Amino acid sequence: MPTAIAVTSADLVLPPTDHQTPTAALLPSPDAQPLDAAIADMQVLVEQHGYVVALYPASLPARHEHRLHTVRSVLESDRIALLRLDLPPLGVAVLVRQLRQLSVCDFSAGVIASAARLLSHYVYAGALLNTVARLDRVPVSLRTHAKSWVPGSQFGVLANPAPQLVKVGTGEQLAGPEFGTHLMVARGQSASEWVTESLAPAWRVQGVVEGALPGESPRWWGTAKLVEFAAFLPDISVLYQLVASVRREMCSWCGMDLIGDRCGFCAAPLVPPEPGRGAA
Fold first, then answer.
1. What phi and psi values does residue 264 have, to the nearest 5 degrees?
2. What is the dihedral angle through the alpha carbons of 269, 275, 276, 277, rounded to the nearest 10 degrees?
3. What is the pTM for the complete model shown?
4. What is the rounded CA–CA span in Å between residue 264 and residue 83?
5. What is the pLDDT of residue 150?
6. Cβ contact 96:89 at 8 Å
């Protein structure tokens, strides 16, 4: 069985791109599910799949995050990875689908978990906003705050991989990916076509897909008048080659395979080899 991918909200589960991509398990909030039921469901996931990689946005309410850690602690399981992501909600959904795609490949659970950090650098996530007055997740200058009160103002904001903000209509454009991507677009209470008519051509995306706006997005961006977007690598073969090209290591703490500089399961940093022992 493939490694189970789990999420904290159903709107983080995008439609699969093919018949092989599995869905993701849902880990409800404490208000929606008693602790005993949450423990039982997680136990079933571990028994059926061997390992569980749970992804959740950094904006997740504290009670929900505490529930995830409580369940793992009660089960005393080292087969559950809890990955906190700083991406906007639509970016999280895109990354979750990429890991769902990779879960059916010949990668170990440790590699899949640590691949989340690697692949997040290739997700260009942002939004078109009618105001940045309540935006606190991307640096906004006082001058830009003042401009946001002008009627009709719109701002293009990039949160990942590097923060950037431009005022629409000034000729400025957000820095886009230098590789082929598809663009996922989710509309809030905004009728603007700037993302599809201006941003998509500037970024030379190879396809535009419309999706539903995640419920967390208005709170994340500070307004419901937005159009959220995320450019991503859609091809499973490219994702596979990207992950497979990175050298695999073994976590010195829990023994899981990993790529990059940190274990996805226990979060321990990769310990560099001692001087003179590289060959060993």
1. -75, -20
2. -20
3. 0.92
4. 7
5. 59
6. no
Tokens 């159903």, residue located: 10
* Spatial distance between the Cα atoms of 87 and 93, rounded to a whole number of angstroms: 9
> Whose CA is closest to 153, among 130, 132, 126?
130
Task: Pinpoint the alpha helices (H) of the chain.
Answer: 35-49, 62-75, 89-102, 109-120, 142-147, 194, 200-203, 217-221, 236-244
Contacts of residue 218, defined as CB under 8 A and 6 or more positions apart, other chains included, come to 188, 224, 226
Closest of 134, 155, 124, 135 to residue 229, by C-alpha: 124
Each domain of the chain, given as residue ranges in start order, spans 4-110, 124-232
Which among 153, 124, 113 has a CA at the least distance from the CA of 243? 113
pLDDT band at 169 (very low <50, low <70, confident <90, very high): confident
Stronger pLDDT, 37 or 272, i.e. the higher one: 37
What is the DSSP pairing of strand 257-259 with strand 248-250?
Answer: antiparallel
So what's the pLDDT on residue 279? 41
3-class state of residue 263 by DSSP: coil
Looking at the structure, give the CATH architecture of the domain made up of residues 4-110: 3-Layer(aba) Sandwich (3.40)
Residue 207 has pLDDT above 60, yes or no: yes
Could you please state the CATH topology (level 3) that the domain comprising 124-232 is classified under: Hypothetical Protein Tm841; Chain: A;domain 3 (3.30.1180)
Q: Nearest Cα to 161, choosing from 209, 117, 98, 225?
A: 117
